[in-house]
Design a protein that fits this description.
Blueprint: H1 2-7, H2 17-37, H3 40-48, H4 66-88, H5 115-126, E1 134-139, E2 147-152, H6 155-160, E3 167-168, E4 171-178, H7 185-190, H8 195-203, H9 209-223, H10 230-235, H11 249-256, H12 260-295, H13 299-302, H14 304-309, H15 321-334, E5 336-340, E6 345-349, E7 358-359, E8 367-370, E9 376-382, H16 383-386, E10 394-397, H17 404-411, E11 420-424, H18 434-442, E12 448-452, H19 467-476, H20 480-491, H21 501-521, H22 540-570, H23 582-613
């Protein structure tokens, strides 16, 4: 068997870290054995032969003592044995699937499967009867991790399956995923091995349905070959580098500072840390982990080679924060919202292959829905489109992205077709907006609003149906004395509302100065759109438009500061170099730059419209 392994050595993958480590050990033992007893093969032969072999003296060693000879033979024998055992710990080509390294951070998982092999296994998992006219395939990308898309099977498959293809209401069903293949909280609760555990946690409100789905995926990843979901879990991405939740603190500061996303990401990372420490980790370690220890074979977690090579090293280790983040990001980026009971109940679930559909804002060509019998999720393409699709045509759905921030925050990409952005009314690190922020807090008004490019000319009138946003804009339109009076009124300081004699004199002097200024400027300049810091404005429409313009100008100022800072770093400041993978960091910064540029385009369009169309 030892020599059989030597013959199979060409089948081993030396490109992996574990393979290199074992090969290095094997080589060192080989050399040690050669020095000790002529060659490792001789030592192995003597060690594996009858006991008489140990007393045989070779011609080269004829003059040496018996004890020294025995010592060298034993050394060579143990070296050969060590090398054999080291090699035995290496997976052969047939064992790679079972011995892929399972890391504490899923992003470090290493798989022996190629992207095409992952697709083939997932297709086999679902079955051709469910994968009717669609298939997944890897998309080419020069500098990004492999990702997948869903494509039509094309004309040949359409003809072959014409009898089994169903068309309803002008749509062709290209995928039909039964509920047995869908991952949700109910899947976790009905699982043969873990169902009782998840049912108890859900009934006792230890976790919610989203957390149950995420923890179930984590458990299946831990189970590896023991999991019935292995083909699907292997297909799931391990790296989602552009999702801001995985960025370093330095990258967040550098790329997102000065945008509304900065506060969103910082706040969400703090919340996730709290959720991990107070809910999910305890629930997983106390309830799920003991069950995994019963399921996972002892040989996979207690072998001496586990500690040596790291194989299966953390199958039953406590839940890491990196695992938690990975499952959370998977759920955000892939879970589908499925309405049932006429839309009264929404189920969030992972649906294999359907979740491989990429997004399109302008030209989605498919949609998903629950089947009429409520037993599967169907992916439907309009028949007029599907009848003409080739195997190179990608099937896309819409993710329901409302603005640039939603696309970047959740999925890690900038959607060039989205023409909306979120505008903050106040900034936590801006002294000039603190008074406005206080007023908005006291009146419990929103601090953000979504700007749609198509409404740029309308200005504040675009929010005529939202009285809370209009009131927030009215406050932002105030300044000077009027803003101070508003704040005092909100604080209930009624006795200071009346002006003192000194304040009246000061106000009158400023009024006289304004009159003189208007007298000299009336012939050369229009009074329209000029703003007076001490003017008491009662026209709500003017105040709302002024407030909107002020918020846009403040947001642009913050973008300018971020762009200037990024430009300095980009010119080669040594002490600002990122730790970790420089390629990944560069991609993140490039995407952040695209995001800021897109936000700037929308804000500047509003600013240009303000001088032409708004009443200020």
């Amino acid at each position: 068997m030892f020599f059989k392994r030597l013959l199979l050595i060409k089948n081993h993958n030396y490109t992996s870290n574990d393979g290199k480590k074992a090969l290095l050990l094997f080589s060192s033992l080989f050399l040690h054995g050669k020095r000790s007893s002529n060659s490792i093969s001789n030592a192995a032969y003597r060690g594996c032969s009858s006991s008489k072999s140990f007393s045989t003296v070779s011609p080269d060693n004829a003059g040496k003592s018996s004890s020294e000879q025995h010592r060298r033979f034993l050394g060579g024998g143990f070296a050969a044995l060590g090398g054999a055992l080291a090699y035995y710990s290496l997976p052969t080509s047939d064992e790679n699937d079972e011995n892929d390294r399972l890391a504490k951070d899923p992003r470090d998982d290493r798989s022996s499967l190629t992207p095409h092999e992952k697709v083939a296994k997932l297709h086999h998992f679902l079955g051709d009867e469910n994968r009717i006219l669609a298939h997944a395939k890897p998309l080419k990308s020069a500098d990004a991790p492999v990702h997948f898309g869903l494509f039509s099977d094309g004309e040949i498959s359409r003809k072959e399956k014409r009898r089994s293809v169903r068309k309803e209401s002008g749509e062709t069903i290209v995928l039909n995923v039964p509920d047995a293949y869908i991952v949700s909280a109910s899947t976790a609760a009905s699982d043969e091995d873990l169902g009782e555990t998840f049912t108890k946690m859900l009934d006792e409100n230890k976790i919610d349905t989203r957390q149950a789905t995420q923890m179930f995926v984590l458990a299946q990843r831990r189970l590896k070959s023991e999991s019935g979901w292995k083909a699907y879990v292997d297909f799931l991405p391990r790296r989602m580098d552009l999702v801001p939740m995985f960025w370093t603190e330095r990258e967040i500061e550098r790329g997102l500072k000065g945008t509304v996303l900065y506060e969103m990401v910082k706040t969400q990372k703090a919340r996730l840390k709290e959720e991990y420490e107070t809910v999910v980790k305890d629930a997983f370690d106390r309830n799920v982990l003991p069950k995994l220890k019963e399921i996972i074979p002892k040989s996979s977690s207690s072998s001496v080679f586990v500690s040596l090579f790291g194989v299966n090293a953390n199958d039953t280790s406590p839940l890491s924060f990196e695992e938690f983040l990975w499952a959370k990001a998977l759920f955000w980026t892939r879970a589908l919202t499925i309405p049932i009971e006429n839309g009264r109940v929404i189920v969030e679930a992972l649906v294999p292959l359907v979740d491989a559909c990429n997004h399109s804002t302008k030209k989605p060509n498919a949609r998903y829905q629950l089947s009429n019998d409520l037993k599967s999720v169907e992916l439907r393409v309009p028949s007029k489109i599907e009848d003409n699709m080739t195997s190179e045509d990608e099937i896309k759905i819409t993710y329901g992205i409302e603005n640039l921030e939603r696309a970047f925050f959740t999925y890690g990409f900038v959607d060039e077709d989205v023409m909306s952005t979120i505008l903050p009314f106040a900034w936590s690190d801006d002294e000039d907006t603190k008074t406005y922020s206080s007023c908005l807090d006291l009146k419990r008004l929103p601090k953000i609003v979504q700007l749609d490019l198509e409404n740029a000319k309308k200005g504040a009138s675009a929010f005529s149906g939202d009285p809370e946003v209009r009131e927030a804009l009215r406050i932002l339109g105030m300044q000077g004395e009027q803003l101070a009076m508003e704040l005092r009124a909100l604080l209930g300081v009624k006795e200071t509302l009346a002006l003192t004699p000194a304040e009246r004199i000061s106000k009158q002097e400023r009024a006289n100065q304004r009159k003189k200024g208007r007298l000299f400027s009336s012939f050369g300049r229009s009074k329209k759109n000029t703003v007076d810091a001490d003017e008491i404005v009662t026209d709500h429409r003017r105040l709302e438009n002024r407030g909107l313009k002020r918020a846009i100008e403040t947001a642009l100022k913050h973008l300018d500061e971020t762009d200037e800072s990024e430009e300095k770093i980009g010119k080669g400041e040594e002490n600002n170099k990122e730790k970790g993978d420089p390629t990944t960091s560069a991609r993140r910064m490039e995407e952040a730059k695209r995001y800021r540029k897109k936000v700037r385009e929308i804000l500047q369009s509003y600013l240009e419209a303000s001088s032409k169309h708004w009443k200020l």
